[in-house]
## 1
Amino acid sequence: MKNVTFYKFDIEPEKNLRLDQIISSRLPEYSRSTIKNWINAEKILVNGKTCSPKDKIAIKSEIEIEVHPNEEIDIISEDIALNILHEDDNLIVVNKNSGMVTHTAVGNYSGTLQNALLFRYPELKNVPRAGIIHRLDKQTSGLLIIARSLQSHNYLTQQIQDRLITKKYLTITSGILKNIGIIDEKIGRHKINRKKMAVTFSGKESISKLKILRRFDKASLVEVELVTGRTHQIRVHLSFVGHPVLGDRLYGFRKSIFSKNSELIKFLDLYNGHALHAMSLEFKHPATKEKFFIESSPPDEFLKIQSLIEKYSYADTN
């Protein structure tokens, strides 16, 4: 079974939607007919039990999907420039630009990293999600691992599940962050705004480790290590403690905090990103089984923001 890949994820109840529709929205690279065939062939289980394409989901449920090589994939390949920092027979490391969606989803069938990967590496059509084993938010830049084979995909995704991949981010937060070394707050879907996540008692365990690198007047430069990897985790956690990521309007950033910094305000008027960069990864290489480390510098926009903050404020490394 080593040439078989397994998806496992939770889904929330969706009013008036059938099971095949819900799964299709989560895995848009596969056709609806393919998903129906999987269900009928008992390759999809809901809470460990077989199911029907017409089933409705009444409670939060765990979905398990068995994916074999050469399954039908319905994503177009597109000639989009990629910044490849590492490439070998087993994996690729991409430095994703802010503004690029990681993989296709409802409303984003084109212009994604997944579309670009399938053009440059056509063989990735035989690997789930074109080899993408984790994701970054659209406006977050930085490093992503791409598995080039099912064997590598299985090995790397197992490391993610076992929390053996070290992922560190660099961010600039609003306000002067106090000595917070760790944020351990559960995260789940926001009760009202379904596009947002929130700290909630009923959410999933979510742990972020913080290291304050520099404090400025009304901002902080912070290194964040993800222990868990929940959707929007860093953004939610930093917003929860009152220091949203600079540029992240969804989670409470307000440029008015820098009202005395006219150059920065002018820059932020045109800035459509988040000052959040996935700067380093460390994991065991699927072929050598040795530690593999890679890092990247933040993009020019991030550095520009940092320089404008530095220009008009004091700095404190304590």
## 2
Amino acid sequence: MIEEILRPEREAVEDALARLLPDEAWPERLHQAMAHAVFAGGKRIRPILARLAYRAAGGDPDAVTDAACGLELIHTYSLIHDDLPAFDDDVLRRGRPTVHVAFDEATAILAGDALLTEGLLVLARYPAGSDWAERRAQAVELVAEAVSARGMVGGQMEDLEATGEIAGREEDPKIRLDRIHRAKTGSLLTASVELGGVLAGVGGDDRVAFADFGASLGLAFQIADDILDATASAHDLGKSPGKDAEAGKLTYVTLYGLDSARERLAKLEERLVEEAARIEGPGGDLAAVARFVARRRN
């Protein structure tokens, strides 16, 4: 069932990305590096979430596909920078050489910078037309805040600081771990769901429900990611496994243990299905995506 939902959603996103990010542009090497990262595959979960959330609010998701693609461009920027030698120093991403390996480190940094700004530009432009102006402004503010020093980038910074500090710090490491990943991974996923609501004109408690579901989904995504890093192969992951443990990173597996992390993820999956039902009714597409995220194998 999940592939029946995801396949047409991915196709809509891929078509829009190909239109929004031409592969032949000046400067050629920079755009080649950007395309290398963006068109390497991927689940396209963030733009799909925005489309499904917009549909759950009663709209035609095709109206917001271009805007939703801004999320994917920004997410890809973060992956390029995560893979750099100064961060995770990874050589594989989605089964292909990372950008700094396929090109060079300076080009990778610039490709990431370009995709971040391109993503915000897409959100500022789409959906086009004066009728959308206020919602576009809200969308840009929402996503920019999510990836700012108070969101994703701040979470990345604290993740660096916490590396090698699983124990021996005054603050409860469980509190710190949740804070890191609610920012590093969760903030953009939260914004992805909330973006669909914002573009649909959802406000008040209804918008809070969208944000709550996105935050829970972000946490589930990170716990699943930590479990996969500890258990999956490079073939399954499309990137190098076991790097978190080697680096001494603070993760749900290193802190709670593998079995406890799996139990925590299973409980979170149940909560996600309940939160999705408040948005779209029982048995909807958002609930199916939540189960997919919690049970993913790559």
## 3
Amino acid sequence: MSMIGYYFRADDDTVQKLREGSGEILFDESNEDRLMCVDKAWHAIHYTLTGEVWGMTKEPASWLVLGGEPVNDEDMGYGPARLIEKDIVKLIADALSAWDEAAFRESFCIEDMIADQVYPVMDNESEEEFFQYVWANFAELKKWIQEVAEAEENVIVFIA
């Protein structure tokens, strides 16, 4: 079973609906343009940004994948969806601006990921191919987070 990372841009009304109801709204076809998927790259993105398998640091970039507070009790597949409020989204967007491809490559270490069992990397993984996969997903997410921050919206993050 795959663990896919999702991000959903949500205005305050949508956040309230999520708090009061179910996460079905996240996959509603009418909201398709608000949903962003980083496929299985979520854990490698987190590890590259933080050097941590599951932990976070005080740096806002570390809150991108595992940050936020549960928006409700519904299990989205691998725990509840988490809310990253719009003021935090702005901090994350600002922090991500320093992460260009060279900086990301410098922090990317497939040997450490294998040793620390970072999902979904495997022993026989090509470092360059895996880097390109993770970088492409991160670059798209970075741009998306910037757009959400500029729109002053919240982010719902979950793994399904």
## 4
Amino acid sequence: MRILQGQILVALPLLNDGDFKRTVILLAEHNKMGSLGFVMNKPMHLTLKDVVSSVHNLNMPIYYGGPVAQNQLFYVHTVGKQITESVHIQQNYYWSGNFTQIITGLKNKIILPEQIRFFIGYSGWGAGQLQKEMKEKTWGLLNSTTAELINKHPDDIWPEQVSRMGANYKVFANIAQEPSLN
């Protein structure tokens, strides 16, 4: 399958890398220079008000986006071009955009929490690196669906997406994260 911006990377069940075990990544960019995406299912023990001092009452969770740029805040949203400087990913997914407009929209309830997900860091691959990892069977690749990843509970995302990969993978969807504890 050809890798395209907007697709979903699903960590295959035997991937034990600490950063990417049981993760689902939305690819925000993919081109000849490389790929950039955000882990959609790893909440951190932080909220937006913990990392942005000017948003006292926005208690929205922050997610681990990946190991790159751990000192930066990123966001994926479904608000679209209502936010200037937003970058279209695919369908109704966008990333980045004018942060002041986003905060104002959240404070005024024009933007709802289920329309945006915030991340510390991102997942990145250099030219050809993701293709190599795909050949090594590190990742499954799915087309995104109309079901929103942004407003799903993080514990449900990986099992749901791995189940979409077919009968050979469905059995893994219900296995505990640490099978030795069963």
